[in-house]
Amino acid sequence: MSEFNDWLQNNAVDLARLAVQCAILAMVVRYGRKLLATLRASQEQVGALLKLSVSDAMAERLEASPEPTKRFEPPAAPVREPEPRDWITSSGFHSARSAGRKPVADAMGIRTRY
User: Fold this and answer.
1) How many domains does the chain divide into?
2) pLDDT for residue 9 is more than 70
3) Model's pTM, two decimal places?
């Protein structure tokens, strides 16, 4: 028995360290399992809420629009066409000089050649 007592006295510190490490490992596993259970319950609640909101939205959509509507309807108010001006030629360009108006370049003080 003296050999075992000698071995125990020589390795007591190592045995204490091993016991503390095992206790820490057990606590980490215990709290880890609690944390994972909490996260799983939270995910299930979020999933249930999402499923409920999607099913409610689908039910509201079915109730709100029983008949299909036209996607591109003409505007309700009539749109007035711009009146043609006499200084616009058939090509779409205008001659400001022939209409008696001052070209923009002249109004800004830029010299141009015609």
Assistant:
1) 1
2) yes
3) 0.41
